[in-house]
Design goal:
about 180 residues, alpha+beta, six-stranded mixed sheet, four-stranded antiparallel sheet
């Protein structure tokens, strides 16, 4: 009887250790999966571009490029009597490793104002991109989430290069890169 209880306790202990081990492995895999995406971000700041004012900065601090970079905006459709907001995005192709892009104020107005009622100083609400492993991600100012299967679903303009689509975009090396 005592040996049966000891065996049951041993089995319970072994099962608990195995469960915690699997749980820790899953957490480590999730951290590894999010590593590159966690190194890509954006924010608004006063810019030192010729236009001055507040602009948008997008940074890839990882050692791998991100592809399919989309800046996503919320804007009412042009001509609607009631402001029905929808997501619209502008595509900028690939963001190379360890790169910081600074978009001057009013960079996006020209492309977006053709189809939507937008203020001249509109800024993106989130960015979408694909990491080196082919996973889509969405980064807002509050979170990093797995992205939609089709990150291009609401695009207005696709450009192979930000420099071609937006005048005066400033490209420079990113600080604090994973080197």
């Amino acid at each position: 009887m005592v040996s049966a209880i000891a065996a049951a306790l041993g089995l319970l202990f072994s099962g608990s250790v195995a469960w915690f081990s699997v749980s820790a492995t899953r957490q480590q895999l999730e951290q590894n999966r999010r590593h590159q995406a966690g190194r890509v971000t954006f924010w608004y700041t006063f810019t030192d571009t010729p236009d001055g004012g507040y602009g948008t900065v997008v940074v890839n601090r990882s050692l791998d490029p991100v592809t399919g970079l989309y800046l996503v905006f919320r804007a009412p459709k042009q001509g609607d009597w009631i402001a029905n907001y929808e997501s619209v995005s502008l595509g900028f192709g690939t963001l190379t490793p360890c790169t910081r892009l600074t978009f001057p104020p009013s960079s996006f107005y020209g492309d977006l104002s053709q189809s939507h009622q937008v203020p001249e100083d509109i800024t993106p609400q989130e960015i979408r991109f694909t990491d080196a492993d082919g996973r889509n991600w969405t980064r807002s100012d509050e979170s990093l989430q797995p992205g939609p299967d089709d990150p291009t679903k609401d695009r207005v303009v696709d450009s192979a290069s930000p420099e071609l689509a937006v005048p005066n975009v400033k490209r420079e090396p990113a600080q604090h890169c994973d080197v």
